[in-house]
Amino acid sequence: TKYNAFIITRLRTRWGVSLEELENRFGEEKKRWFLTRTEPFLCSEKLKNKDGFVKIEPDGLFVSDTIMRELIAVEGDFSTKP
After folding, report:
1. Which terminal residue of the chain has fewer beta carbons within 10 Å of its beta carbon, N or C?
2. Angstrom distance (rounded) from CA 69 to CA 24
3. 62 touches 15 (CB < 8 A)
4. CA 29 to CA 14: how far, in whole Å?
5. Which are the contacts of 60, defined by CB distance < 8 A and separation ≥ 6?
6. Distance (Å, rounded) from C-alpha 61 to C-alpha 52?
7. Which pLDDT does position 78 carry in this prediction?
8. What is the pLDDT of residues 41-69, one digit of tens each?
9. How many CB atoms lie within 10 A of CB 42?
């Protein structure tokens, strides 16, 4: 739940999610999982990864609930395996 609160709170700021802080707080595995889940939104330019911060772009605001739903986790989700 701390991971989810971190993601939801940080995505609502203009700075976004610090990948360094994400890794420091939750570990490399959760950071990799997060980056895997953000990939479709980065490709569609709904999210942007700049200088180690992932943030919602203006086009992503209309689908921000969908983005957050994809980036939060339930127990056992932190596998990067398909």
Report:
1. C
2. 23
3. no
4. 25
5. 41, 45, 46, 47, 67
6. 20
7. 56
8. 999 999 999 999 999 999 888 899 899 99
9. 14
Residue type present at position 69: R
Pairing relationship of beta strands 53-56 and 47-50 according to DSSP bridges:
antiparallel
Would you state the structure tokens that stand for residue 12, as one six-digit string? Answer: 């609502």
DSSP one-letter code for 48? E
Q: What is the pLDDT of residues 4-40, one digit of tens each?
A: 999 999 999 999 999 999 999 999 999 999 999 999 9
Percent of the chain with pLDDT over 70: 89
**CA-to-CA distance for 67 and 42, rounded, in angstroms?**
11
Side chain identity at residue 34, one-letter code:
F
Q: Are 15 and 55 in contact (CB under 8 A)?
A: yes
